[in-house]
Amino acid sequence: MGCFSCFNSSEDEKLNPVEESSKPQKQSQTIVSNNFSTLPSGGEKLSSKSNVRSKRELLLPRDGFEQIAAHTFAFHELVAATMDFHPDTFLGEGGFGCVYKGRLETTGQVVAVKQLDRNGLQGNREFLVEVLMLSLLHHPNLVNLIGYCADGDQRLLVYEFMPLGSLEDHLHDLPPDKEALDWNMRMKIAAGAAKGLEFLHDKANPPVIYRDFKSSNILLGEGFHPKLSDFGLAKLGPTGDKSHVSTRVMGTYGYCAPEYAMTGQLTVKSDVYSFGVVFLELITGRKAIDSEMPHGEQNLVAWARPMFNDRRRFIKLADPKLKGRFPTRALYQALSVASMCIQEEAATRPPIADVVTAISYLANQAYDPNKNDRGGRNDEGGGKFDLEGSEKEDSPRETARILNRDTDRKRAVAEAKMWGESSREKRRQSEKRTSESNSTTG
Questions:
Q1: Model confidence over 167-214: pLDDT tens digits?
Q2: I need a labelling partner for 46 at 20 to 30 A (CA). Which of 74, 144, 202, 314 fits?
């Protein structure tokens, strides 16, 4: 799917300054100003007087906007749609700006209108990237961009309306009258979000690194169908013989992969780490960073990692709001996936395709808390669970035997491979601790 002819894949995170007098432009490129003087906005061009506001400009091929199918709105249309951005239509606020619920007068369609905060963390470049990305990328697990507005200094994005809000809304700080997500729904959301990442990593050409995967950016439609949103920080992945993209560090604390946070070296495995953090949020019900938790428990990954080495502590990782209603063996498998995703070394994390395979299997094994037909192999949460003989439980052969109940043998093999890698990692850690202990006592 070669859909990125309008991106410069070698583009640095910094916008490219252009000196017209010193450097002739290549014929294959034109200059698109930060103030979008070439971007149509409701049938009008921006005033050329505003071109002097910034000398920073972004290189794009000359046909970049001709390929954009998204509708262009005039600002007055979106003012009418949101009743002049009335407080009653306010949905939330993020790094980009405020989001409002609206209804388009021409079609009657209910939409979400995101208005750029000119004093916010994100700016014109992020606006441009989001318009381009969502105009060119289409998948059931990516939010649909309906159109945009670039009238004067106004920057707005118009999306399909996602009636159930974000995953964050359903995981954290729930009001007393709001029911927590059950186990089945959590696995379904995780599988859908992973498929969205898989599309970006493996189907887009070149691959797209999302860079801001977090629970607040996973929006939920009818039936809790998940879609990734907010693509302003997305980057094209490395091509050719390049192993990474070097860029300034952006994203959200608690979700950023350690190698990216320390070096600015970005790969698709950085997204896999972020996915692992969100998957841990789904399993534990905890926030990635929570300053209200006791010292030592404020960082979700730092709190959970030590527990991965002791299966007797796995039950403690389950969200108390589940009230024990989860299949214990599936909990163990889900934690195995999460532990692989948040490995310190990027190379040891699984590709997102393997993650999709594993979590799709878990999502397809519907859990019924009122039935106990698992023959002791897949006990309910809080029930008897064989915590001994972990080598057998961790072996690829044993996992494959269980997964072979599914008709998709390919899925079973990939699942078994993941559990095997997890087992080997545990053994390496155990041998390392034993060696350190021996050297200390010696």
A1: 999 999 898 888 999 999 999 999 999 999 999 999 988 889 998 899
A2: 144
Cα separation values, 372 from 89, 216, 377, 383, 401, Å:
46, 35, 10, 10, 20
Which CATH number is correct for 167-436, 3.50.50.60, 1.10.3300.10, 2.60.40.10, 1.10.510.10?
Answer: 1.10.510.10
Could you tell me the residue ranges of all domains in the chain? Answer: 27-161, 167-436
| Residue for token pair 């010696």 | 442
Measuring CA to CA, which residue among 432, 421, 442 is closest to residue 355? 421
Annotated binding-site residue? 114: yes
212 among known catalytic residues:
yes
Angle at 328 between CA 426 and CA 378, to 5 degrees: 105
Write out residues in the chain with pLDDT < 50, as ranges.
1-66, 121, 240, 243-244, 246, 373-409
CATH class of 27-161: alpha beta
pTM reported for the whole predicted model: 0.71
- Residues 86-129: tens digit of each pLDDT: 999 999 887 678 999 999 999 999 999 999 876 654 567 778 88
Please tell me which residue in 151, 212, 230, 354 is annotated as part of the active site: 212
**What 3-state DSSP class applies to 47?**
coil
